[in-house]
Amino acid sequence: MIPELGHFALILGFCLACILAVVPAWGAWRRNSRAMALAPGLAVGLLVFVGISFACLCTAFLQDDFSVKVVASNSNSLLPPMYKFSAVWGNHEGSLLLWALILSLWTCAVAVFSGQLPLLVLARVLSVMGAVGVGFLSFLLLTSNPFARLLPGTPADGNDLNPLLQDPGLIIHPPLLYMGYVGFSVAFAFAIAALLGGRLDASWARWSRPWTNVAWAFLSLGIMLGSWWAYYELGWGGWWFWDPVENASFMPWLAGTALLHSLAATEKRGLFKSWTVLLAIFAFSLSLLGTFMVRSGVLTSVHAFATDPARGLFILVFLALVVGGSLTLYALRAPAVTSRVSFEWISRESLILCNNVVFLVATITVLFGTLFPLIMDALGLGKYSVGPPYFNAVFVPLMALLAPFMGLGPTARWKKDSTRRWQSELAVPALVAVVCGLTLPLLNADYNLWVALAVTLSAWLVLGLLRDLWHRVRGAASLGTGLRRITPSYWGMFLAHLGFAACVTGIVATSQYNIEHDLKMSPGDTEILAGYEFHFVELAPVRGPNFVADEARFEISRDGELIARLAPQKRRYLATGQVMTEADIDGRLFRDLYVAMGEPIGQDGAWAMRLHYKPMVRWMWLGAILMAIGGFTTVADKRYRRARAPVAVPGAEGAARGA
Amino acid sequence: MHPVRKQRLYLVLFVVLFSSAAIGLVMYALSGNINLFFPPAEVAQGKAPVGQPIRVGGMVVDGSVQRSTDSLVVRFELTDYQATVPVSYEGILPDLFGEGQGAVASGVLDEQGVLRASEVLAKHDENYMPPEVADALEQSGYDHKGNAK
Lengths: 659, 149
Prior knowledge:
heterodimer, A: 659 residues, alpha+beta, 3 domains, 6-stranded antiparallel β-sheet, 4-stranded antiparallel β-sheet, B: 149 residues, CATH 2.40.50.140, 2 domains, 5-stranded mixed beta barrel, 3 helices, 31% helix, elongated
């Protein structure tokens, strides 16, 4: 009964999405304010019905209703309840339903929090989001119904969730990632609405900016969690593989980063308008492409649940419609919205342009590396794979190129600045950064040129930020009043750039100073790694709720002092018999010690073991968290909470410009 | 020249220079870092290059996995039921690696025809087969249990 209710709610949601896609858009075209005023109510209704549908699926999972096909193939009565819950999106159908739920959540959020939007714009934006909703809900209903039953022939127990996905990090990773992915649909909807209206101006950028920042912050968190999960769950200590599915989430992030910055220029200076629109379309198209690649089964990955050509074709057609449609609209309308605002070369605008070029080129190179094997395969030219060395060789120089400009960015003035001013402002930070780069890596045993370079660039970035902050608080009566005067959007930028610096330092330090030993160890053996003694005490059998495991108990000491006890496991899950490595990690701010079990060797209880020493690996994730906090902080800015502009006046943006 | 045009010219020059540098970088990076997949039958026919990074995938032959007792060296054979390729690997194998299961090994073929693997990938779960392996088996006309179709 409950699954049928969910199915029915999903169909109702689909109907509402259809109305939302058509009626307010028609109203905006005919200037019919009654039709336009329907949009917010429809958006709320959409959320309610998709929400009911999602709740029904959750209930089916939590109640072990194995007559529902997705429950039978992805859950098990032994599964702990929180994993039953996360199993809802640990499969193709459920994860698409989550996509649809989050889309309706964003749509509803736009309807509720856009008090300052003119009704005309709001109606267009919600219509575009409704149209995207129609696409995804019809995909769900036509090709991947999550409520399909197995009647008759209901199995007594389910197939279990893939043990790799049975992890707390994975409960929140997909929702966060989807919040980011789908969040770009808001920026996309604003861009399309602006193209439809033929008006792109500072107020448009101001409306769309907070949504873009929040989506970007969610995406940063989602990617960070994915990387962290891979690090401790896949059992070999890697944290980024340039796997096509990782790239699928990384490309919208890169395009989104470019979008954030160009939106800033559009809002403050009215520049790069049509370019910003193009980036918004690009970012959302990459989100859709990501969904297509992950869900169509063209890729080999943990994430590729389904291999069904009909589904792949549907998403491909949908993608073609969205990209083709929006680019056609862009081609028709963009000339009408371009404007020329001049700026000098030595200015913040050019630095933002550099940021955009670097991030766009980075996106395209990642896109190329990801699609190259698919294209070659489709053309029958062989099955190639493009490995991490390609991505590192291209990506690392690009990011290194970015850092010098980033250090200048906060200090630089809009419109016109002078190199002389830059010199006098930043000579000291530059010098200090070089000194940091030369000295700080000495704290580690061996000096490494790459680390020195990374520290120099990060220090340059951080010192440039601090210098600018100091300028801003200098004139105030006290430090406290000076700091309070700084706007949330400045703090957001500050934190995000700080996070980037932390990320760069962490990535380079951990890649260069990382020590890995794979070796054979018997109970009683001791191995010394980077000054830490890893003592293999004993091997013991352990039983968990739905698995049995061998546990290796380690004591780690340094200079005779016990630092940590680690107990990595080799688990065998009962339902499927699948074997899984559970690594154990002693994590500190400046280093991680990582132990994972390989396989038993010989007869005397010896095992293959992975012992890793990873310095500063946490800085990377902390950096990503800082970036996300930065993204969320910007939304608190007062200028995004202006009262509603007079509704029926199309040219109302003049009053609210100034920001 | 008109200042706006001049600015535009600089912009175009900057974009052209930057993107050609990027394309150069991409080509350079791509040339050394892509590798092609070969089914065991093609390796046996000598179609796979020696000394270049390649990938070979197939089913792990039953009873072929041999572990050294004092190091992490493992030897096994991959087959598409037409030919087999011996593989030598030093390190820890993935959890889902096993005899009679699909696997893809990437590495370099030596003069004796042994694949010196630097990485071994197995399927992600019980029902899943790496697509290259599925295709290779399709071409050889056998299913994954070795029965002729």
